[in-house]
Specification:
single chain, 357 residues, alpha/beta, Isopropylmalate Dehydrogenase, 2 domains, 12 helices, 12 strands, 19% strand, binds adenosine-5'-triphosphate, binds magnesium ion, IsoPropMal-DH-like_dom, EC 1.1.1.85, branched-chain amino acid biosynthesis, 3-isopropylmalate dehydrogenase activity, magnesium
Length: 357
Amino acid sequence: MTKKILILPGDGIGPEIVAEAVKLLDCLRTDFGLAIETEEALVGGAAYDAAGHPLPDQTLALAKTADAVLLGAVGGPKWEPLEIALRPEKGLLGLRSGLGLFANLRPAILYPQLAEASTLKPEVVAGLDIMIVRELTGGIYFGEPRGVETLANGERRGLNSLVYTESEIERICRVAFEIAQKRGRRVCSVDKANVLECTELWREVATRVAGDYPDCELSHMYVDNAAMQLVRAPKQFDVMVTTNMFGDILSDAAAMLTGSIGMLPSASLNADGQGMYEPIHGSAPDIAGQDAANPLATLLSVAMMLRYSLGEPDHADRIEAAVSAVLERGLRTKDIAAPGASAVGTRAMGDAVVDAL
Ligand code: ATP
Ligand code: MG
């Protein structure tokens, strides 16, 4: 059956990097017979400009009927004066909650060809391949009660609540174990169970879920130690699973170990395996429209889409191999080029990957 992919270019460099992904999808369709159809819609600042809202009803409806969504990036200085409810980022949050995308997968992979880009010593990061599984629709970002209130004495008090039900913890842990089964079979669950009762429950549920995956090994780590271990000896990790906020912080730290914001893809999945795929970087307004953005994170997001939502792991492998081959040939966009070395543009990089494919 033909799979439907919704393409959301978004803002800033979004349209440029997504155009390269569309070239790649076209190549898979015409040269490899992949049964897909694509449709494009508006989100973010582009949607606000055209329709007065960062997530038009029509876009969300299309996303719900698609098998997968490919997003460029949203946001930029142009829309910063808007009230929060109309900002481009609200479009992204609306897609996450509207599609029920509770599992955020963020790989941190160091391409051997880019080892010099890392902030760490080569022996510490060579071969780095971590998958961070972050819970995306619960935890302290959504817990009630929340807000800023004024106390009887006139002082104000800010309040947010860390809340997880057992079923929310269980389903994200299952995602982590199922991914671990296809990788190194090790899951590290990150919590703060020595201080926060909610994550004491998290630890208990993770341990229970591990019983269903006897081929995998579960370890637990407090988040402060996990942050330290990530920069001290990151290769000890295979899959890490954690709460919304801890995952937000740890995945950014892990990304920087690889030294290249333009290289890292991400996936956000719901219970039906539907997913939204996007590079981890933002809309990079400073380089938009200059054919300077690195499209590889977006192309690698297409690989994740093929693997996790479209049931085409061989095509995913093929794209990843094509990216490696292009790096091996020495092709670099500016963000991953050595200082002073020559660099190619967005389109040339995208074309090179399609050629390698
Ligand atoms: P966010 O949207 O998460 O707030 P941000 O605005 O902090 O993100 P980005 O938009 O990711 O950050 O940009 C951070 C820096 O990285 C900018 O200098 C930008 O030019 C650069 N950058 C981001 N993505 C890419 C890319 N694909 N290729 C090259 N440079 C990039
Ligand atoms: Mg930004």
